[in-house]
Amino acid sequence: MSEKSSGALGKGKQAAQRQRKIEIKNISRIFTIRRNNNEEKKDFTAIENVNLTVDKGEFLAIVGPSGCGKSTLLDIIAGLSKPNSGEIYIDNKLITKPDLDRGIVMQGYALFPWRTVRKNVEFGLEIKKVPKNQRKEIIDKYIDMVGLNEFKDRFPYELSGGMKQRVAIARALAYDPEVLLMDEPFAAVDAQTREILQDELLRIWEETNKTIIFVTHSIDEAVALADRVAVMSANPGTIKEIIEVKLPRPRRVSDVISSADFSWIRHKVWELLQNEEKESDKFVKQEKKPVKNLAEEISTYAEL
Ligand code: ADP
Ligand code: MG
């Protein structure tokens, strides 16, 4: 399917200013699933013909019903899994594996259990060969930003789920990748920390011109953060519509969410999702789809 876009409020960036960063071309991903005690195999199309272009410096959010293929798509952009068809290009270069141009913050994309918080955050800097004497300052800055100063020397097993997620965010930001791929990165942190991290992410993005693809199940979060919100539909997963979010920049989450423009865009995304949830419920009833979230059972994460 082709990329549809609806404007919401004001005028967008001029076409001449835009520089294409990520190009997602006709991506499909089919999983072979087993039924009836492994006897019966069946192909399941998780995402089909996804086309999407993300500009350099753009903040794109993706929302969609559970199981519509958001994580599958992000995994492929990260280079952690391969599509059955289609290609992804970053700066016109075909993506075949994870690389340091992309920072990844995903559920299940675990920390290194044998490394302390500090050492986890240092990882990308080592690979990037940042000189040792420059690393400490960078590590301290990002650990401080995610509020884990007192936990620098702890190991992942000594941290709560939300704290681990914050380490993952610091690790992804520390080596300064041009592209950030984030899969519900703030889902496991408490509301107060979430707002701090959302604002920090906005600030970093404003300062560094990173390109961000941010998956969330929160419509508020998507609209508050993004330049565009891609709404996915399920069975098979594809991009249903893209809503432009022309709220003023620089933004702070607490400022935008109380505005009338925010409510209007939020409602638009909500309506699209409502229709989508109804459609996907119908499908589940008709097909008696047996597996709700195989992704969590079958982990296909590759080594970095
Ligand atoms: P979302 O992130 O939107 O909730 P996912 O991308 O995790 O959805 O999954 C999309 C669909 O593909 C789901 O129905 C899920 O069960 C299925 N799926 C994901 N990963 C696998 C896998 N490794 N094997 C089989 N099915 C999978
Ligand atoms: Mg997911």
**Residue share in helices?**
25-40%
Count of helical stretches: 9
SSE pattern, N- to C-terminal: EEEEHEEEHHHEHEHEEHHH
Strand percent estimate: 15-25%
- Rough outline: globular
The CA-CA distance between the termini, in Å, is 32 Å
Average pLDDT reading: 86
Largest sheet, described in full?
7 strands, mixed
Strand arrangement within the widest β-sheet reads: 1-11-10-4-9-8-7
Number of extended strands:
11
Backbone CA Rg? 19 Å
Unreliable stretches = 286-304
Category from helices, strands and their pairing: alpha/beta
Bound small-molecule species: adenosine-5'-diphosphate, magnesium ion
List the SSEs and their pairings.
Elements: E1 5-6, E2 20-35, E3 40-55, E4 59-63, H1 70-78, E5 85-90, E6 93-94, E7 102-105, H2 117-127, H3 132-145, H4 161-174, E8 179-183, H5 191-208, E9 211-215, H6 219-225, E10 228-233, E11 238-244, H7 253-256, H8 260-287, H9 294-297
Parallel strand pairs: 1-11, 4-9, 4-10, 7-8, 8-9
Antiparallel strand pairs: 2-3, 2-5, 5-6, 10-11
The structure holds adenosine-5'-diphosphate and magnesium ion.
